[in-house]
Design brief:
Layout: H1 3-22, E1 28-29, E2 32-33, H2 34-56, H3 58-65
Antiparallel strand pairs: 1-2
Length: 66
């Protein structure tokens, strides 16, 4: 499997499979309950990961050359 496929699957795995394990309220992170901070973290990480996938994908470079 290519690296870009693994990077693209990480947000799906992190949010879908990680929520049951992160379902806590008591530790507050930046004033937010932990579960909300976890979801916000994954939203930001998803943007960073998708930007990385875009840069690493060779198909995007072929389209820019045309």
């Amino acid at each position: 499997m290519k690296l870009i496929h693994v990077l693209a699957a990480l947000p799906f795995i992190g949010i879908l499979l990680g929520i049951p394990f992160a379902n806590k309220v008591t530790p507050y992170v930046f004033g937010m309950p932990f579960i909300l901070a976890y979801i916000v973290m994954w939203a930001l990480l998803t943007s960073a990961l998708m930007a990385t996938v875009y840069v690493l994908d060779n198909e995007n470079k072929k389209e820019e050359a045309e």
